[in-house]
Amino acid sequence: MTRVVLLEVTKRFGKTVAMDRVSLEIEEGELFTLLGPSGCGKTTTLRVIAGFEFPDEGRVFFDDEDVTYLKPYKRNTAMVFQNYALWPHMTVYDNIAYGLRLRKLPKEEIDRRVKEVLSLVKLEGLEKRYPNQLSGGQQQRVALARALVVQPKVLLLDEPLSNLDAKLRVGMREEIKKLQKELGITTIYVTHDQEEAMSISDRIAVMNRGRVMQVGTPRDIYFHPRNLFTAWFIGRSNIFEATVLDVEDDQVKAILNGFTLTGVKEPDIKLEPGDKVAVVIRPESIETQPPRTSGYNEFQGKVDLTMFLGDHVNVRVDVNGLKVLAYLEPDEEPSMGADIKLYVEYEHVRVLPWEELE
Q1: Contact 53, 11 (CB under 8 A)
Q2: Looking at the predicted structure, is the pLDDT value of residue 358 above 80?
Q3: Is 125:170 a contact under the CB 8 Å cutoff?
Q4: Burial level of 268, CB count in 10 A (0-12/13-18/19+)?
Q5: Interatomic CA distance for residues 58 and 292, integer angstroms
Q6: Shortest CA distance to 183 belongs to which of 228, 143, 149?
C-alpha cells in the first residue's frame, strides 16, 4: 500500500490552468475520488499522478519517494481508461497477460497471475474470447484485470463506468468497491457522477476550475459543505441569497425575501452582520410537521408543482416568491395550489459565504 501526496501542484496548457496549486494527501489503501464537472482538472490530476503529464510547479510523492518527473513505467501504477483501451486483436487472456510479458516474467508466473485475476473479476471461461465478443461490463472487467495483474502500488481509474448503462454501472461500482477493499490497493478514482463518488469513496476531493474546493468523507461533504460550489454540486439543494442579520457563536440569522431564517455556519467561517451569504437547505431536511426540537424555522407557501418519484414526492412550494423544493413521503403528497407549512431545523440550514456560480 502506498501513500500519495501532491504538494502545490500546478499544470498549465497554454493559458489554461488545469491544476491550480493542488495539494492532496491520499492515504494507504484508501479509495479516493476526484469529483467535479467537465474541465475541472480531475483527469489532469490523475495523469500527473500516473506520470503521463509533468507539473509546471509542485511535487508528487509516493510514500517518501519524489516521483514528480519519474516516467510512468517506473512508478508502478496501473490505469483503467474510460474507453478500456483493450487490444482488439488479442484474446482476454493475452490482453491481461500483456503487461506481465513486457516485464519478462516467466511463463508459469504469468499463467498463475492471469488465472488468479480472472477468478477475481469473475471472467473464468472467457479467456479465449476477443473484446468484440464481450459485453460492455465484461470489457470493463478485462480492463480492470489487466490493471490488477501487474500488482500496482497505485490503481488509477479514469471514469471507468461512464460507457455502461445505468443499471450495470450500479452493479460494477459495487464490485469495484468490494474488490478494492479485499486487495487494499491505494486507488484514485475520477468521475463527474456525484452518486458514484458518494457510494464508493472513503474520501472525495471536489474540484472546480483546477482547484480543490473541499476534501472529506462523503458524509462530511454532503452535510457540511464548506463553500457554495460544493453545496451546489453535491446533491440537490435549495440555495437562496440572503443578508446576515446577526451571528451568535455558530448560529446565524439571515434575512431573505422579507422573512428571517436561522441556520448554522462552520466554526472557522467568519461572518458579520450585513454580509451577503448563501442559505442552503437540502430538500430532504424539510418537514411538514414541527420537529420535536425547539430550534426550527417555519414558513408557509403554496404548492405549485408535485412529482411522484416512487420512494418520495418532489414538492415545489412558492414562499414569498422563493421556490422551495421539498422531498416528502408519498402519503404526504399535497394537491396543486394547496397552502402548506414547511419546517426545517436550524442545524439543517447551512449558511455559507456568497460566491457567483458559473
Answers
A1: yes
A2: no
A3: no
A4: exposed
A5: 51
A6: 149
